[in-house]
Each structure stands twice: as structure tokens, then as C-alpha cells.
Design goal:
The complex is a heterodimer.
Chain A lengths: L10 H20 L3 H12 L3 H7 L22 H17 L11 H8 L3 H8 L3 E3 L10 E5 L7 H13 L6 E5 L1 H5 L3 H7 L3 E2 L2 H9 L3 E4 L4 H4 L16 H9 L3 E7 L9 E2 L1 H7 L5 E2 L19 E4 L16 H25 L6
Parallel strand pairs in A: 1-9, 2-5, 2-6, 3-4, 3-5
Antiparallel strand pairs in A: 6-9, 7-8
Chain B lengths: L3 E5 L4 H11 L6 E6 L11 E4 L6 H9 L3 E4 L6 H4 L2 H21 L5 E7 L26 H19 L4 E7 L1 E3 L6 H6 L4 E4 L5 E2 L1 E3 H13 L4 E5 L5 E2 H7 L4 E4 L4 H10 L7 H9 L6 H5 L9 H12 L7 H16 L6
Classes of the chains: A alpha/beta, B alpha/beta.
Chain lengths: ~350, ~350
Amino acid sequence: MTDARVIPIKAKDTKSNTRKKPAAKKAASKSASPSRRSGASRGSSGGSAAAQRAEEPEEQPTPKHDPLPGTEPEPVAWDRKVANALAFMRRRVTGDYEIDEFGYDRELTDMVLNAPLRPIYSRWFRVETRGLENIPDDGGALVVANHSGTIALDSLMTSVALLDHHPARRQLRMLGANLVFKTPVVGDFARKSGSTLACAPDAERLLNKGELVGVWPEGFKGVGKPFSERYKLQRFGRGGFVSAALRTKSPIIPCAIVGAEETYPILANAKTLARIMGIPYFPITPTFPLLGPLGLVPLPSKWIIEFGEPIYTDGYPDDAADDPMLVFNLTDQVRETIQQTLYKLLVQRRSVFM
Amino acid sequence: MPRVVLVTGVSRYLGGRMARILTEDPQISRVVGVDVVPPRMDIGGAEFVRADIRNPIISKVINAAEVDTVVHMGVIATPVQAGGRMSMKEINVIGTMQLLAACQKAPSVAKLIVKSSSSIYGAGPKDPAMFTEEMEPKHTPGSGWAKDSVEVEGYVRGFARRRPDVDVTTLRFANFLGPRVDTPMSSYFSLPVVPTPLGHDARLQFIHEDDGLEAIRRATVGDHPGMFNIAGDGVISLSQAARRAGRPTVPLPTSSAGIVGAMIRRMGLADFSPEQVRFLTYGRGIDTTRMRDIFGFEPQHTTPETFDSFVRGRQLNRLMPPERVEAAEEQLVSMLTGGGVSR
């Protein structure tokens, strides 16, 4: 496909989206179950467009996840919020919670890890999400996106987009490089928020379990590229993600992210320093390391995340994953789709920051 | 159907219990237990033969009793029990070599069951989330019990090649835990303060001692050649386990693990081989699909249940028992809300 569908979003709508949503989310994040959340957003944003959208999950509860214990569907009062927060803390202190085999801690991700990302998503980057209807409500699917922006903020924002704005509230299970899991703290948070190592067994395992899997095949080549090469897709790995999709017959959903390139424009790469520190690149941006920790604040670029039409893989024969030519062609097709969507979005964008 | 069963490592807890369980099976006429020291616990109707599997005496035992099934449980994970790392390696590796050499020469032997360990998969950042039986380790274990297990499995493979008429079942167990069994993990979680790798939270899997023994029994009486991962359902993280045990943790940078590990080892509190530290840093998961579908075994205890039964069985002195935390929570809630909310 060369021309992805564009859903024009009026400026007024966007505004109500960004203004009302966070308030609703904030109220909801204290409560624990998906059904409770939608109740909360209805109460606080009073029938706005945002609330209308947020109401939908009530009819389509997330299929795989049971509601967490200790909640009943009633309006959230402050005392109940306190009680929920305390119950959450009790479960944390006594270890009475569940993690899945990849180490994903749903409760922690919901109540703690995603909380700081939501204002960044809606206020700082004012992310506009398009084509969410291309993501299935259930079942395995592979989201393939371009990678950029020095640190992998784009993956976090995509995950917030799918969790908070998709009607089925889908949790994106991201695949990360082994450096991520080697690094203390970072690797720990990555696993707890649902990521796992980018390798064929894990990708196929997640897809077979019907999870929505996110992959950034450019890897470090994508995030660490200089600013002058912005929005030019790097090589797409070895096409391992296509093989995984073919083996599990999951659709591939190309995803284009515009805005992340401008968050930390890399002017130069201090290669020697990177080698000493054992990291793939050491970025030098206009503010980092010049301004020290202040240089870690990303520039407030305006983001657009567009999910393209799915590329279905269930029509191919069972051994299609062993046909390297087909894998290369599909990889190219996905890459081209993303590249074309990026160009299209760049043309539409009025300015980097507005 | 086995008639005469030889069980190695019978003087230790699991081996002794295994021998007793097998004597209760009416179809098995004779159970011979072998170990270097006499068993401290009751091994039921099993005969004990004091023999070192590290020397050729074992061959005479097998031939004299016309053993048809060998259950090899003589691979030791705790150097303290074996009397040091050197003798542990002797028992594990040389012992297995001798035992297999004897089995190869004995025409009566028709079945071999080996209690192996999931530690042969190693542990590291490049590991897939769950190891299936066909996967090769990404980080080959280089020390301790894990390395022994790799070598033991190597000899077992060699034996299976040379004696294709013998059915070999290799069971790769997740860490054993339960109310009574002594393992590196039980001594680790019994430490007054649990040192954990800073910034990492390993995924752990456990197998309950009763489930593990049932798996070995099943392999002994049935026909299930092949390799099987055996673990309880579910995983728990290291920090979660420590909280469930009510143990305070001290996160230490992994670079200091060597020094701290050596200190703890010297004090005889727990085993901390570098391999063990890697495991506690990166964790490991093993896939049990084959255990369910081909071996046909369903553990009675999940991983969290196994851990809880260990905590209860050891009566670990919890710093914050869940009942107290719950009481405190209820008090706080009623204080803040004037008793209006019932959870």
C-alpha cells in the first residue's frame, strides 16, 4: 500500500482531547480495573468527545486481563481512592501480586510506571494519534515503527497511545535490544512494563498468546543517527520481525512516528566516549552535555503517530518464514510504507513545535 | 515396568524420600539406595549399600542386584553438604562418569532417569524469556553446580548414544523449594538480610519438592524417554519473593557480588557461585509445554504457592507479616474515612 488513510482531526477536537483527557486519566489511574476507569472519565469530563471515546472500553473489556481485586464499579469517591491506594501498597509490601512469564507487572505499570508518561504524552509532545482503527481489538499483531530521538521515547509514547486511546486499551509488548536488559534499572523497568528481548522465540511466544507486539527494527542505528539524517529509515535489521509474523500468521501494522527526531537533535556522536562507556553512541545535542542534566529535557516537538493499514500474513503458506526472498520483500514493503507515510506526514506538518 | 531400581544420592533428603516412595510401589520388588554416607532419614524398605559412585564398586552393586532402572539423583547443588566445592565436583562429575560406565557394561539396565537442572541454560541478558528443551544456552554456565550439570548432561548424552537400547529420561528441574528441602535458594531466602543485585529483578521459577519427586516417580514407573523441563506454573520476581518471605533486602551493585558472595560463603550461610549471582541478576524461565503435553505431568503447586509453602514450612521470621500489614491498612482506611469504607 502506498497511500495510508488520513483521518483529519479538527483543531478543536484535538484541544478537547488534550485538555480533558489527562484530568480523566488522573482520576482513573487511582482506581484499578478497566471498567472503573471508564466510569471515572465519564464523571469528570461530562460527555465531551473525549469521554465518549473513553466510554467504549466498558462494552469491550480487555480480553486477556481480569479486573484486579478489590474494586467494585461505582463512582470514585476520594475515600475509595485512598482505600485503593492503600490496598495497592499493601499488595506491594506483601508481594501479593502477579507477574507474567516475561516479567510484566500489570498493576505496577498501570498505577505507577505509566503515570509520568501521560502528561508528557498529552502536554509536552501533544501527540496526535491516527489510524487506531487499524489495530485489532484482540489477537496477536505486530506493530513495526521507525525509531528515532536518541532515547527511545517514541516507543513509550506509542505504548501510551495504544493503552489510553485505543478502544480496547491494548498493552503494547515491546521488544528491546539486549543492552536494555543488561543495563541495571532500565532493564528492570523494561521487563516490568511488558518489554522483552527482541528475539524470535519471545516475539513468537507473545504473538501466539495474542499480544500486541511492538518492534523498532532500526534499533540503535535509528535512535543514534545524526539530525541531518532525520526521517531517513535505516536498515530494518535482518527481517526477523517478518519471520515471526509469518510463523504466527499475525498481521503487521506499519507505524510512522513524526516528532521524535526533534526531541534531542544529535549534532555529533562522541564515539570514543561511547566506546569507553560501552554504549552504542554518545549523543551531543544542542543542550547535552552542555547544560548538564537540563540537557536531558526533550525539546517540546509536536508529535504525530500514524498506524497504517495492516499487512496480513495469514494468506502465506506455512513454511513462508523459511523463504528468505519473501521475507526480504515483505520487510521492504513495510519499510517503504513507513517511509512514505513519514514523508506524507512531514508535508502535512505545519511546524516542528506547533 | 521396573523391578529393581537403583537410587543414587539416597542419603540426602530428596534421594531418601524418592527411595521410600519407590518401595511403596507394589510393582517394584527391590529398591537399592547408594550413597557415601548412611542415610539419616528413614528410607523405608529400600536396601542401603554404602558405595561411592566415584569408584567401580558401583558396577558390582548393579550387576549383583540385576538393576534394571537407575535413578540418578546424586548431583549435588550445595557444596556445604558435599564438604566443599572440590568434593562436590568430584561427586557430581566423576560420580556420574563412573555410574554411567557401570550402566553401560550392565546388560540388565534398561532405563535411566537423571535429575538435572534448568541451570544448564545459564542466565544472562541475551536469554529468551522462556527456554524450551531444544534451545541452546546463550550464556554457557562457567562455574559451580550449573557447570557440573552441563557436564553431567554431556555424559548422559554420550551414554544414550552408546546404549540406544536404554530409555533415558532427563528431567531439568527449576529450583527445588518446599517446607523441608535444602537448596541454594532456600538458604538464600533464609538469610537475615537478603542481598539483591542492584537495578535487576530476576524472574524465578520453583518446583515444589513433592511435585519434583512425583515427576521422578512418574519417569521411573512409566515410559517417557526424552528431555523435559519441570517447573511450577507462573513466575515470581526476586523482589516479590523477598517480600513474600518478609525479608529485608539490600540492593548491592553486581560488581560487588564477588566480595559479598565470598563473605557469605565463608560464613557458611549460603552458596554464591558466580553462576548463582548471574542467575539472581538475570533470572531464567523454562517452558513447560513438553512436560504437560508429552510427559503428561501437572504440578500440584504453582511457583508462588511453592514459595509460600517454603516460607510457612521454615517459619521464617517475617519482618512484616501480611496480617499485620493488612490490619494496619484497615486501621488507616477507617481513620481517614471515619469508618465509611469497607473494602
